[in-house]
């Protein structure tokens, strides 16, 4: 009888664990935003949605404190700008670990499991800026963790981009590290292996589709509708499996067949590019979550890796150098509202953030009395989009089909909201006016029918807010050209 009760109890515990997300999801939490949710609200959002692992890109005090005693495991990132200092001085590494790892574990109860040294430091676009500092920085951080008594509890890793490996045969089995980087990456992998630490890889099927007009679209998703790629006895039906196994082949060829690998970033944006929309993002992320819930790995690694979905929230102050989509990776909007439904298993869907406070329900729009032929209009839009995020107005984006007047209204409102609705923030050469009627389009239909005229989070200290430093000249010049062409047409 006691044995039967034990098994019933065990089943109940496991079932409850699945329901509450004990075996839950992992997300990236970025903070490049003009209007951040409080860390306490974000942590509650994660817990409400069964997210039990999070990757931070840097050691920011408030998010780390909020994660204390939360039950959420943390991968703590070190920005590339720190690599030179960490590489040059083990004392600097010891100080960094003491301030950003040891103290938060001991004083705040933060469950830090990994320290990610750098972020894609070998990316081709960095032009070798970090190739000589990454490995010594990694060694010094590892030494500092050991000295702090955390060598077993906290593991180091290096998040790399998929461009560090390639395949001459266009098949995963042909995978190997790029010849010009092999002598750099192999010692790092060996060091990680010797210390029982994983390698972290960032994989972006969206970027594969976005960069190549001939890329088979279905191959970016998990539906199995794409023409498969046959590699010997293995059949690949999606690019994530193929990309991951290309890395596995590279590891095998270099003597690291059992090297643990974490997927540090993978996801799909919802705006800023014709392929970035709610339909595609939901399709990709639901397929990804279904795999995670099934415990599905890849053909060469049937045991599933840890996967950190990118990203939790939108970030309107991120660099758009890679593309306008960079600010729209979140499964949630910047304010924690749900973008699109996802099935998280056991009948659970996404839950929005609780306790969010907003500015007044008012918007800045182009005045009904103003003319689109006004000579000051282009300059006013340019100014607004220099200090606010106008990436949703780009070609193929959620607000890309607005008419000229609505385009101007969107730009004016984004500036007004970014400036916390401060007095004088809706004055554009007598071209603007404040309205209490939501100007978000109602009749626009299409795949990206999600154009929103935002109201920002109330930060509670408007008078202390400084001018944003998120100037976006690339968006500005692109937008002016687009608007002018719209008016001409």
From TrEMBL:
In this chain the X8 domain maps to 362-453
| Cellular component annotations (GO), alphabetically ordered | plasma membrane; side of membrane
Give the reactions, separated by semicolons, that this protein catalyses.
Hydrolysis of (1->3)-beta-D-glucosidic linkages in (1->3)-beta-D-glucans
* Pfam short name (any one): X8
| Membrane topology listed for this record | Lipid-anchor; GPI-anchor
**What is a single molecular function from GO for this protein?**
glucan endo-1,3-beta-D-glucosidase activity
- Annotated PROSITE patterns: GLYCOSYL_HYDROL_F17
- Please state where this protein is localized: Cell membrane
Q: Which family does it belong to?
A: Belongs to the glycosyl hydrolase 17 family.
Descriptive protein name = glucan endo-1,3-beta-D-glucosidase
Species this chain originates from = Rhamnella rubrinervis
